[in-house]
Amino acid sequence: MKLVLVGCPGAGKGTQAEKLSKHYGIAHISTGDLLRDQIARGTELGKKVSKIMEEGGLVSDEIVSSMLAERIKDEDCKNGYILDGYPRNLAQAEGLEAITGPLDKVICIDVDDNVIVDRMTGRRSCPNCKEMYHIKYNPPKVEGVCDDCGTKLVQRKDDNEETVLNRLKVYHETTAPLIEYYKGKGILATVKGVGDINEIFAEICRVLEG
Ligand SMILES: [Zn+2]
Fold this sequence. Notes:
The protein is an alpha/beta fold and 210 residues long.
């Protein structure tokens, strides 16, 4: 089974991809993780990528494609895989098919922009133990302080309203043609990404098995 998960930042793609990976015994491939892994292992590609990122550039589709082409040869991909965070635009989608062949399904996790803003601007994390909180949905016992280690919680620089709205705008502009492309192929399924994580997961399974 070859799947792609599409959804805006904060839609919960990573969480659902993880559950799908376990449930169907397929590999969860996040291109962000692949890049970080190359950097951590200090490979030639990793050094190249790290330099590009330090300079604030974008890692080319060519680099990501060649990394993916290698990754899907791994043993854990023999039953299939789920791609999380890639492709992000039409050109990448076309390039991807040259590597993977036809995809079985593309799941779009749909969440309203105002919900995403609410989710992302409320996030706080502990700089010490990395525990994650949300001021509304998962608040610490004492406001602004980590339950586990008592460290003062911080907000990521990117998690302010203006930045989130801007990321969403870019997301919608680049993924609209992507969504149309997969719709045209008859493999797109849209699932509402609001509510209980397990309910959303069950809905995705229904779509895949229905
Ligand atoms: Zn902590």
